[in-house]
Amino acid sequence: MAVIAWIGLGNMGGSMSANLAKAGHDVRGFDLNPEAVAAAEAAGVKPVASIAAAVDGADVVFTMLPKGEHARAVYLGEDGVLAHADTRTLLVDSSTIDIASAQALHDAAAAAGFRFVDAPVSGGMSGAKAGTLTFMIGGEAGAVADATEYIRPMAANIIPTGGATTGQAAKICNNLMLFINLASTAEGAVLADRLGLDKQVFWDIASVSSGDSWALRTWYPVAGVVPTAASNNDFAPTFTTELANKDIGLAISAARDTGTPLEIGEHVQTLFQRLIDSGQSGKDCSMIIKLVDGSFESSN
User: Fold this and answer.
1) Catalytic residue check, 283
2) Domain topology for 3-163
3) Which of 2, 105, 269, 280 is the most exposed place for a label (fewest CB within 10 A)?
């Protein structure tokens, strides 16, 4: 079994590292949040007090961090991964970050003699807990193959995407489509209700017809239809509006860099921003339906 350093034990990283521990690996976890560390420890991850302690003697380092700035700090800082890890250690960043930051990490790791892959995931908190995530891995072929073996206990799908940053590119484009699907699902659900359709009957139709999507099957924003949906629990977060806004913002930024018009994506971001501006950043992003049915405005 491998010695694994895990940096970033939040909603995703905590569950992912726990699955590696359950698979028999020696997993050392570091996070600035004591509660996250305690939860990971209860799941079999060994807490350490610093990045240096986590990476000491590690076969592989995994990072799962909120933004590009955090990933840069963890890898490139004076007390970061590149400063303390052995160059034989494989580096795997599973954060969802901007392309420029991902490229900077690839470049810095290569210059320092490390193998590095960008390996963001899809599947959300439920997939992280169940070990059924989809990993999208970009980097040199040998490093991708080695990373795949470590990733298996966390994944249902492991897909090499090509060279450096292509994992991030795949994740950004995938999430753009997800959030557009979510917004269209919310609009269709509200319109169906106002036209007199039973909510379950309409979902049964859409889920086997051309209106189907992962958002409809998993995040359906009408309560009492899909068990995994946050709408059943007052939109307690499975994927926060703040993170959704961040991720769709990454796609919009990449689109501007490449001269790609994203008129629909930009509109969906304005919807997330309205929720955030009204203090709902920590609620589930499927709360976007409240902007369609009018209940959000009437309560604010």
Assistant:
1) no
2) Rossmann fold (3.40.50)
3) 2
Determine the Cα–Cα distance for residues 75 and 226; give it in Å rounded to an integer: 40
Q: List, for residues 92-118, the tens digit of each pLDDT value.
A: 999 999 999 999 999 999 999 999 999
CA–CA distance, 177 with 175 (Å, rounded to integer): 5
Active-site position among 46, 129, 171, 199: 171
CB-CB contact of 287 with 229 (8 Å): no
Q: Which residues have CB under 8 Å from 26's CB, separation 6+?
A: 1, 2, 3, 4, 46
Could you give the CA distance from residue 87 to residue 110 in angstroms, rounded to a whole number? 10
What is the third-level CATH fold of 169-298? N-(1-d-carboxylethyl)-l-norvaline Dehydrogenase; domain 2 (1.10.1040)
Partner residues linked to 117 by β-bridges = 92
For 212: left if phi > 0, alpha if psi spans -120 to 50, otherwise beta; the answer is beta
Between CA 233 and CA 77 the distance in angstroms is 40
**Single pTM value for the model:** 0.93
Residue 300, pLDDT > 60, answer: no
Residues contacting residue 229 through CB under 8 Å, at least 6 positions apart: 218, 219, 220, 221, 222, 223, 286
Amino acid at 251: A
Angle at 242 between CA 237 and CA 245, to 5 degrees: 120
Domain parsing of the chain, residue ranges: 3-163, 169-298
